[in-house]
Design goal:
Order of helices and strands: HHHHHHHHH
Strand content: under 5%
Largest sheet: none
Distance between the termini: 62 Å
Mean pLDDT: 91
Number of strands: 0
Number of helices: 9
Length: 207
């Protein structure tokens, strides 16, 4: 029994170590892209930034395309998980909209989302090797809609109006996030985010 338990502990330790290494590799990609753009995330640079050999990187991911896809999936999963906070489902409509928009905006202006955007832009088109369909908005629409209905389910909002609201928030904040590249100080940030909240309130309240 003692030997079996020791083996289980060792397996658990190895799994945690592998998970930490994978996260270090993904974070290295995010940092490289944010610091110097997509082209800077070469195989050599990724391994150097993660402080491991390229062979070790390949052991965890296989090739560079697998790493980039893992970054995209991480961004998607972090975003969806952030919207499952119990706080988003509490309070008045105004409070829920405040929490929802603030949560989504926090993700869209993050280094992770910037890396996500850079990878998508650089690998789009027929020659792209990444299966971008798995992370596109239309593929994740049902998951996003379910989340929004969980947050705003106390209000009679049609599927069509909820889809419109979701797209509106997504397009507004995507553009705002890209503008951050040109104007890192984000002038009028608070004012524009409040305008978004006001418009979302109108869309849901008058549904």
């Amino acid at each position: 029994m003692a030997g079996k338990k020791r083996i289980q502990n060792e397996d658990g330790h190895q799994a945690m170590k592998a998970k930490a290494t994978r996260e270090r590799i993904l974070n290295a990609v995010v940092t490289l892209i944010n610091d110097s753009g997509y082209s800077s995330a070469s195989s050599t640079a990724i391994a150097k930034k993660a402080s491991i050999t390229w062979g070790a990187v390949q052991h965890h991911f296989g090739n560079k395309e697998d790493i980039l896809l893992a970054v995209l999936e991480m961004a998607r999963d972090v975003y969806i998980q952030s919207l499952r906070s119990a706080e988003l489902k509490q309070g008045s409509l105004e409070e829920r909209i405040d929490h929802f928009v603030d949560t989504v905006w926090e993700h869209y202006k993050s280094d992770l989302y910037f890396a996500f955007s850079e990878i998508v832009m650089a690998t789009r088109g027929k020659k792209g090797k990444l299966p971008l369909g798995s992370v596109r908005m239309n593929r994740q629409l049902e998951t996003h809609l379910q989340t929004m209905f969980e947050i705003f389910g106390d209000y009679e909002v049609s599927d069509l109006r909820m889809k419109e609201s979701l797209r509106f928030v997504h397009r507004f904040l995507t553009g705002f996030a890209m503008d951050k590249v040109l104007e890192p100080r984000l002038p009028y940030e608070d004012i524009h985010i409040q305008r978004l909240k006001d418009e979302l309130f109108t869309l849901i309240h008058q549904a």
